[in-house]
Amino acid sequence: MAPDINNAGNGTFSTSFARRQSLELMNPPADSPLRKTSFISGTFNLVATVVGGGVLSLPLVFAKAGLVLGTAMMVVAAIITDFSLYIVCCCVRRTGSTSYMDVVRFAFGPTAELFTTAILWIFLSGVLIAYNVLLKGIFGPLARDFVTTFTSIRIDGNFDAFVLFIILLLVSPLTLERNLYALRHICYVGFTSVCVIALSIGVRVYQRNISRNHSEELHLSNTSAGLAGIDMQIKYFTTDWMDALSVFPIIILAFMCTFNVVEVHGALEDPTRKRVKNVIHSTIASCFVLFQAFGLAGYFYAHNTCKGNIFLNFDPSDPLIIIGRLGMGLTLMFGVPVITLPCREAFISLVYQVQRRWRESREERTNNFTRSETDALTGSHTALLKSNGNSYASFAAAEIESRIAIDSSSTDSSLASDEIEMANDGVKKSEDYSIPPEQEVVQNHDTFVHVGATITIAANAFLCAVSVQRVEVVWSIIGSSLGMSIGFIIPCACYLKISGRKGMKRNTITRYRRSENGVYWQLCLLRMGMSA
Known about the structure:
The chain is mainly α and 532 residues long. The chain is built from 19 helices and no strands. Helices cover 71% and strands 0% of the residues. The longest helix has 60 residues, at 319-378.
């Protein structure tokens, strides 16, 4: 048990505020041979997974918010993302979880898991819509330029939608796969493409702003490249704060890698807290430098005419940009099935969770009715059913007890009792909740459900992408609402819940106040972002 803070006279008051060591249950263990990722490999893997389609909208951030305010928002986003990733790793280390959803389930039980699964499904659906909009903007102009140059086919206004439909048909076999391990390296193509694009845009910026040899040629391509009416004056601060609030979610989504950090943590060699911190710090710092360079390069090229997809500011036939355009297009093209897989699993898991909770609720009502009739007839009182011993939390409690038995010489007995109490509380809250139900069913569901869910998700993303003309609208909506919740609100809540058993500490009240402030600003950003 934790020391009694009310018993200050016997000297235990000061120890109650001391920071106590956490009991860590890493899965796989720290010395496991399955951990083969070095510090450099782990950092690069995490950087490669962070860099994605959201980078193409970063120049718009500086065009709307200005250089100084845009840079300040980039710094804020980097800091809070760094902190969020670390507390997710802390939750993983204290619970033995192997995924983001495991952490949520351990902290708040199956109801919170159901709620988070719904948020995740909607969020991934929004990301798919944004990917489709970007694909339409990347390959549509290329196909249009090719057709008008080499054929006499007449092109109508639905040509870009037709190109997107063809692309989705090409990747449809991959979207039906249950395992996309073969595409695990596609993120490196995206990282390389972003670097190439940044260098290419930098060359074009030099030619436009410094070199006079290309000024006339670039001026002639302004209208076709979407640069008509460009204002070369640099904006440092915005005069419309709604513009700043609308682009801040774009930065948040660009840095987001909450799910990937759990996998990197599970494969990292010698996963000490300091080593994990260094990996996260190095990742966020590298991404910040790359994002800042890319955003500034795009802004100095297009200035106030920056679009949500920076490729729309360039001529489709620009030979310097076309390599990066094709590389990023292929990355997004193969990123569609990569996003479709977890989106489909979240959708099917959500359906099964709802069905299971409805079935358990109906059985509970039936049992209560039967028990009432029995009590009325016999006058006896039926004992309450206890939680299933195979629940996730009971497994965690057994694991904690076994770890305590092994490390009893180095583990504080009061900490051990607190950890066991936390796990046992999880047993009471789990209400007969066992691990396998939705996860195993999602992996083994029949072909009809699998294909039907895939077609439904793909059709929804396609129809929404055809209707939406600007990708920044999608980024702002999902970033200001779902992205903030998944990336910051839920991890902070899980950390406060899981670490609450460590005992009173000086910064307990401060953490809760920060959490309340985070919820408040999340709601403000949601309302303002939706209004914008």
